[in-house]
Design brief:
Layout (H helix, E strand, L loop, with lengths): L2 H4 L9 E6 L2 H4 L8 H11 L3 E4 L1 H6 L1 H4 L3 E5 L1 E2 L11 E2 L3 H6 L4 E6 L6 H17 L4 E5 L13 H13 L4 E4 L5 H7 L4 E4 L7 H13 L4 E4 L1 H4 L4 H14 L3 H8 L3
Parallel strand pairs: 1-2, 1-10, 2-3, 3-6, 6-7, 7-8, 8-9, 9-10
Antiparallel strand pairs: 4-5
Helix pairs in contact: 3-12, 8-9, 10-12, 12-13
């Protein structure tokens, strides 16, 4: 796999702060995404390394996003107006290449009724992408979105992450759980943690990131907890301090609320 594209996403320390900004595919103009330009500018100024986003955002805000590594989501599912399903492939690798993408992303749901279909899609995308020298991020969600708690254990997440590695994904985006060391040490590609719904408690979120990094996570792919924050630039800077400076939670909070 050509390292040039991966180096647009992961810094020399092997870690990445990825802004997840693909929620518009499901939620439309979600809070914080109504007018993307200003939000994106704040997050870039805060120190994000890369963005995971839709074909449309990557196209219409190409100039703004130029400083970031670009990960284009190829799949999608139902919107909030209907019923969210397992999703299907909307775009091809060639579409992402035309946008100058550095990687592509697809989701898979081990343990869900759509397990086999989503894993087959992941495998097909990996095969196609690697023919073009394009890295693939696999978003692995055991049981599917809104799955019961027993799917969100370190053991379940470790299985999902390792399956993605076995299928050829270059790195994985997974939920965090206590015991994340088991995930990081049994998945032989980098694992970044997703943020999920906005938590509201900034300290708690930063503590979770600190714990994940200490357990071997290679970074984060966080959306709502950044772009819905009261201060998106400050929140990005706080997370960047954790990811790239090995800062303490207290130091990160100081970045969020500079004195």
């Amino acid at each position: 796999m050509p390292l040039r594209r991966l180096h647009r996403i992961f810094r020399p320390d092997g870690r990445a702060l990825i802004l997840a900004f693909d929620h518009g595919l499901i939620e439309g103009p979600a809070r914080g995404m109504e007018q993307p330009q200003n939000t994106l500018e704040q997050i870039i100024a805060g120190g994000a390394d890369a963005i995971l986003t839709s074909y449309g955002t990557a196209t219409r805000f190409a100039t703004t996003l130029a400083p970031l590594g670009l990960i284009v989501r190829l799949d999608g599912g139902g919107t909030k107006l209907g019923t969210m399903g397992p999703g299907s492939l909307f775009y091809r690798v060639e579409d992402a290449l035309r946008l100058g993408a550095d990687a592509v992303a697809v989701s898979a749901f081990p343990g869900s009724p759509a397990e086999e279909d989503t894993l087959r899609t992941l495998a097909q995308v990996v095969g196609e992408a690697h023919r073009w020298g394009m890295p693939v991020m696999a978003e692995m969600v055991p049981g599917g979105f809104d799955s019961p708690a027993h799917y969100r254990t370190a053991e379940s997440i470790a299985i999902a992450a390792r399956v993605a590695a076995e299928l050829g994904a270059d790195w994985v985006k997974v939920p965090y759980a206590d015991g994340f060391l088991h995930v990081a040490t049994t998945c032989y590609v980098p694992a970044v943690i997703l943020g999920g719904a906005r938590k509201g408690d900034e300290r708690q979120m930063l503590e979770t990131i600190r714990n994940a990094l200490d357990a071997g996570a290679a970074g984060v792919a966080i959306g709502r907890n950044i772009f819905q924050a009261d201060n998106p630039r400050g929140m990005t800077a706080a997370i960047a301090a954790l990811v790239h400076e090995n800062a303490s939670v207290e130091h990160a909070l100081a970045r969020l609320r500079p004195t």
